[in-house]
């Protein structure tokens, strides 16, 4: 669809709580925001969706064009996406279905929206069916973050849970079966890597400098934690390099790197919590902004 046409739909969707008129009136429509594979910039498109088996599905049909749409190439590079559905907005992990699962889900999609069958008939490429997975909050999180200590534990709980999930996926397939280590594992692992980068970047750029100013006695600890960030970052870069291709060509090495990541990250998170939680517990979240000074 032309960009101007998409922009009009996006504006109407957001202005009317997810409802649009014209050719899409009454249809199931969502907005998907991906991160550009090369540009790194956000890119939003309106897409039809189908619900099946409790899943939220979109199809990279491009109206039967010979090449995949750009939004699909974006999510292969950056699986964490933003979904706007009605008046709700949430992050999701985009996971293309494979094999028999893809076939089953596509058949369900076509029963609900037959036009996708027509699109498939007009192209030689297999139309990807993408599951938009909304991550569940790991158990044990406080219902509401009241301090930066709570936010730190929230981030650490997510990282631990996501890494356990990825390792379990990798280990559930027997060694020597690289075909089993496909897109689902790849997307989940890339999402973990993105979350890890985001968390450590925020600490290095904001939290650690602020703590260094307010708690100078933590200078040595903060230096150690920064060194751990860099060591973990090198393992993360190794993982991302192994996931560069659609198929994972070195599954045994991936498993080994995930084991190494788990050992290093758990040690780091335990150390960080022991040293920083007491200081962070005294900092409210969200931060309290100082009010205007009375004249």
From TrEMBL:
The organism's place on the tree of life at top rank: Bacteria
InterPro entries (UniProt xref): F420H2_quin_Rdtase, Hemerythrin-like, Split_barrel_FMN-bd
Gene3D superfamilies: Electron Transport, Fmn-binding Protein, Chain A, nmb1532 protein domain like
GO terms under cellular component: plasma membrane
NCBIfam families noted in UniProt: hi_GC_TIGR00026
Family label: Belongs to the F420H(2)-dependent quinone reductase family.
PANTHER family: F420H(2)-DEPENDENT QUINONE REDUCTASE RV1261C
Protein name stated in the entry: Cation-binding protein
Organism of origin: Kitasatospora aureofaciens
């Amino acid at each position: 669809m032309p960009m101007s046409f998409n922009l009009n739909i996006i504006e109407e969707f957001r202005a009317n709580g997810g409802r649009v008129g014209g050719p899409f009136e009454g249809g199931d429509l969502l907005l998907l925001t991906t991160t550009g594979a090369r540009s790194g910039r956000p890119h939003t498109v309106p897409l039809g969706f189908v619900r099946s088996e409790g899943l939220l599905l979109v199809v990279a049909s491009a109206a039967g064009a010979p090449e995949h749409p750009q939004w699909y190439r974006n999510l292969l590079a950056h699986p964490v996406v933003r979904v706007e559905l009605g008046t709700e907005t949430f992050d999701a992990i985009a996971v293309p279905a494979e094999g028999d699962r893809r076939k089953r889900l596509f058949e369900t999609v076509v029963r609900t929206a037959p036009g996708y069958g027509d699109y498939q008939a007009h192209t030689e490429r297999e139309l990807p069916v993408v599951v938009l997975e909304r991550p569940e909050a790991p158990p044990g999180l406080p219902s509401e973050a009241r301090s930066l200590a709570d936010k730190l534990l929230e981030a650490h709980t997510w990282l631990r849970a996501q890494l356990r999930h990825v390792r379990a996926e990798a280990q559930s397939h027997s060694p020597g079966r690289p075909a089993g280590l496909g897109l689902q594992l790849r997307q989940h692992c890339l999402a973990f890597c993105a979350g890890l980068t985001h968390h450590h970047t925020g600490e290095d750029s904001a939290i650690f400098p602020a703590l260094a100013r307010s708690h100078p006695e933590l200078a040595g600890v903060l230096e150690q934690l920064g060194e751990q960030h860099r060591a973990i970052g090198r393992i993360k870069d190794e993982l991302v390099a192994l996931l560069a291709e659609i198929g994972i060509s070195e599954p045994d090495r991936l498993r080994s790197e995930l084991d190494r990541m788990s050992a290093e990250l758990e040690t780091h998170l335990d150390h960080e919590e022991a040293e920083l939680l007491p200081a962070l517990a005294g900092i409210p979240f969200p931060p309290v902004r100082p009010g205007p000074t009375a004249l």
